[in-house]
Amino acid sequence: MKYGLDSFDNQRSLKSELYKKAFFILYNTMEIIIVVVVILIFVMSVIISISKSNDRREKMATRQAALGYVFARVIKHWDNLYTFGISEVDRKVVIIFPDVEYVLNYEDILGVDVVVDGNMVASRSLGKLIGASAIGGIVGALGVDQKISKKVSDIHVDIHTRNLSNPIIRLQVLNTETDMFRNSLDSAKEIANLVKIVIDKVEQEEKAKAMSSPIESTTEAERQDVLSIPIESSNLIAEELEKLASLKEKGILTEEEFYVQKKKLLNL
């Protein structure tokens, strides 16, 4: 009888061991399956992401070829979200997205902002410059040359235009929390600097045009009349004409009032 009980206990112990081993094998197998599934999901997501990026690149390349502009400078997003180009020959700023493109004349651009995590770190607009050492000093101002301890989740460049349909064109340079902050900020700075150069060029041209002749808006006959006036009197008249033009631009004088006063000055 005792022998029978011992045999029964041994069988039960053996079954228990077998159950434990089976559970252990099953547990390890499940772990392996889970790891394999996670790896497969990651690989598939990478493949899909690369495929989408390549598709965007092809679309933008097609749009760029159709436009036909030759870029003196071009900046492409690392994940093919946009292409930014400057055509100096045509005086165009071209921004190409996969589904739309914007072609801006130099004169269409009003300003540019660089925004990092919701904070505007530099800005340049017609007649206005904001930011540490302006846009050109953005890298030093943010301490990028030093060791970066903070991750940044958003960097974008806003280009302000005269287009009422699209007054602001946004270039999303970085929109995820990664360690690509340094390269993304350099890219944002480069875009902003190029836009700044365009704005500076337009401002210089406008100033040169305005200073080329204080009586530029007069007719040829009026120009000859003014040129015949003695130098001292001519200088005074030129100053008065500038004042009148300024009042007209501010809306204080109407076009008719400006014309009447100008004729009085020129004794016409």
Overview of this structure, please?
- By secondary structure, this protein is of the alpha+beta class.
- The chain has three domains: 1-65; 68-209, PH-domain like, CATH 2.30.29; 213-265, no CATH class.
- The chain is 52% helix and 19% strand.
- A five-stranded antiparallel beta sheet has the order 7-6-5-8-9, covered by helices on one side. The protein has a four-stranded antiparallel beta sheet with strand order 1-2-3-4, sandwiched between helices.
- A hairpin with a 6-residue loop joins strand 1 and strand 2 (83-87).
- Helix 5 (231-249) packs antiparallel against helix 6 (255-265).
- The chain is elongated and about 130 Å long.
What key phrases describe this protein's structure?
about 270 residues, five-stranded antiparallel beta sheet, alpha+beta, single chain, 6 helices, 3 domains, 9 strands
